[in-house]
Every structure is written in structure tokens, then in C-alpha cells.
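[#protein-structures] MJ: dropping NAD(P)-dependent oxidoreductase here for a structure pass
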Amino acid sequence: MRILVLGHTGYLGRHIAEQFRALGGVRLFGAGRDPASDLRVDLATADTGRLAEALADLSPDAVVNCAGALGADPVTDAEVNARGPAVLCAALRKAAPTARLVHLGSAAEYGAGEHGVRVTEDAPTRPLTSYGATKLAGTVAVVSSGLDAVVLRVGNPVGPGAGPLSLPGGTALRLRRAGTDPDAVVRFGDLSAHRDFVDVRDLARAAVLAATASGPLPRVLNVGGGRAVPIRDLVHGLVSVAGFRGRIDEAGVGSARSAGVAWQCSDISAARAALGWEPRFTLTDALVALWASVGACEEPDPVP
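AK: finished. C-alpha cells for NAD(P)-dependent oxidoreductase:
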């Protein structure tokens, strides 16, 4: 089986590619902006015809699209999250119309959830940010493409290798910098918002199952932990794993997204039925693995 992973050097793509490599009978190709990629492409600027030619040469049986912008700015969000999937679908229709496309969407497409309620795939989509809106546009491009395609609407990934601009990765880096100083203070805004965290290794397994499943799949499948966890619990869980001896200072307002989306939780029963998938790792497992992977890179701290 010939598998192409777009965004194979990113956080999610690395884990997905790793799980494909562990399978027998798979020939894996990587695509992205990295010069070492088998297919060097930036979906934000790619020409449909040239991309189609490159895809025809690779002749993939399945394509997993992990490329995405993480809310850097509205223009970049639109170029990568909305235009990118549309161009990819157009190229696949020309070059590999029978290939299975697995596209990573986001639970941010739903917007604010009702407290205590798990959202299903047919829930209304009311994104509150350019990130959520452009991810939703990408989902629409995929599900309306006519291809054999499925969108995995992902919760909040956490686990080994999380980047410093994500809340889990940034928190781990800040705790690492603080060390064991009992007088250290790490400050956050309000941490009361609830999120549905999913271990990145569980997400990768869902993507592999979706790419290799026989027969048609639902157009959209939620992939999350299936429970809402206060962000505060994640932070204090990392504190415990890190052995941090200082003080966590939670004061003031958090991010605009946390204020606008106080509750987020996905119903994952459809993914369980369609893929035989469910999370294997607990949040504690994910935090232990994240802490073990934290390096000494110096990046800007995220604002929670």
C-alpha cells in the first residue's frame, strides 16, 4: 500500500508517519516544505496542475493531510486551512481519484459547546475564530469533493513532542525552565475552560485506521478523548509529573478563545463504530510522555 503524508515533519504528521512505518506492506512518502520530502509542496501556494502531476507520479493509495496553520493570522489560516485542502482535492480528482483522503480537521469547527454535552458530528458548526472558520472551510472542501474522503475532527492533541506554542508544550517548557527552584512562579491567565484532550499517539492510530479501512467511511469522525477536562487539571498534572516545587499563579483573564469557548467535548462513538478505535492513553500517560520529550529550545511562551 502506498501512503502519502502531507505535513510529515510537523507534530501530528511525525507521529502518523511513525505509525505507518511500523506497519508491514506500506511504502510511505512524505510531502511538505522540507527539502528532504519526497514531494516538496506548500499547499498554501501550490498550483493544482503541477500538484496533480506530482501525485500521479507517486500514485498513492491513500493520502493523509496533516498540513495546517495554527491560528497564526487570518490570511495564513485561509491560505493553508481553506485553500490548501481545496487545491489538494482538485489535484487528487485529476491524478488519483480512487485514493482514500484522510484530512485532519479540528473540534474548533464546532465553536462553543453546551456545558456537560458531548458534541456529535451532526452538531451545528459555529466557529468563533479564523482558525476554526478556515478549518471548517477545509472540511467543506473535502466532504464535497466527491473523493473517498474522511475528515477526522480532532480535539486538543497532547503528548510527546508537543510544540512550545501549544498550551501543553509551552507549559512543559516553562516548567523545565523554572527547574526545582521552590521560589519560582509560573503565571497563567484563567484556566477554568474545559477541553477534550487526546494523546497524539491515539490520534495517529486513528489516522492509520482511517487510511487503511476497507469500504466507505462517514464523512466526518470526531477523534478526541471523549471527556472534558479543565485546562487547570492539565497544568497541575504537568506540575506533578515535573516535580515542580514553585507556585502556579492563576490570575486575570485567559486567551480570547478560552473566554469564548468555555466547554469543548466530543462524542467519539462514531469513530469507535467505524474504525474500532478508542483512546488507549490516559491524560497522565500523555503528560508523562510530553515531559520526557521536552528539550531546551527557547521559544516564546504561549498565552493560555
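MJ: nice. Residues 2-159+199-225+265-280 form a domain with the Rossmann fold fold (CATH 3.40.50.720).
AK: one more thing. DSSP finds ten helices and 13 strands in the chain.
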